[in-house]
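This part of the workshop introduces the protein records we will be handling. Getting from the letters to the tokens is the skill we practise here. The record below serves as our worked example for the rest of this section.

…
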Amino acid sequence: MSAAADSSESQPNASAAKGTGPLAGVKVLELGTLIAGPFAARFLGEFGAEVIKIEDPKGGDPLRKWRKLYPEAGGTSLWWAVQARNKKSVTVNLKAEEGKEIVRRLAKEADIVIENFRPGLLEKLGLGYDVLSKENPGLVMVRLSGYGQTGPYRDRPGFGAIAESMGGLRHITGYPDLPPPRIGISIGDSIAALHGVIGAMMALHHRNMNGGRGQIVDVALYEAVFNMMESVVPEYGVYGMVRERTGASLPGIVPSNTYPCRDGSIVIGGNSDPIFKRLMMAIERADLANDPQLAHNDGRVPRTAEIDGAIAAWLSTRTINEALDVLNAADVPVGRIYSVADMFADPQFAARQMIQQFRWQAPGEKEGEGVDIALPSVTPKLSATPGDTRWLGPALGEHTDEVLQALGYDADHIARLREQQIV
């Protein structure tokens, strides 16, 4: 086992099942599937919130069957273990009136509802904010959708990939002579989810400090991506400049690029003025380090090719490790491009306990069976009230009885609901 995994072996903390983080006492109701909404709820659950995830009794969240499964034949997604950690799975048929009543009763006790259905669906089900907030005026509802709750595109289906395209990210990603590639993860969904969490925290603070009323947090996936686009809007507004794809470099910020060594590539960020000078001295180019025209970024930009060429020439005779040794000694930001295998072996990941080992059992497996599973640790790190993994992604409907009993349903009533396929 790697150093990174060895340093942080752990088991879900059953004693902390009720949550001890900064959000302990906050109740979250998750209505949604796949990535954006569930990732937002996961984030809250990692920091102590009680998260009740509503799933369709017939199969649950489709993410349960995405990517690699355990067991490989007919098992559950390994992604599920982290995406649904610390959540309670409750199965409810939202098409049944008694199922909707369960959701209304849960929402009455919730602080936050998170949903990522297409706009209008909750209203059709009789579960819109206007209905839920009548019984719970302090309710905060986070609504994540492709295009937001208003506008001419609101009714279109919208996934993260479409948001990355419309929000501008794809247009500036990749090389100018190739079609825009996608990033290898669902970054549009994740960025939107984090905007949802930030909005929920602001709305909760406003409710608690300024009058006790909740509100809607309307997050459009494309707008969350658009919000990350740095200077593209003012550059177009003032100069009519459309930023294009520039490969591995960061346009207008010099030098910041990916450079080849003898045995692979490294990333160098030498774009602050003092760092640039240290970088040039490290690669034995005192002439460039002391050139007054290159003292500031606006002077370096017109000479980007010359600067990148000097760096590339110096690296061409060196291995990655040789280059890292010299540049780290010169206090220049530099790094190799990590695979997940590199992360498992890296001492920084180990020291920060960023990879934690757990034991995960598939439904039906007996005590002692299961698989060792590595999960990313909770981020960010809070010094006094850190986040935690209290349990891994639950089996479908694992907490249905527990949650319904807490709402006042007795065993006979729950049995009848199950017989009628309402839960």
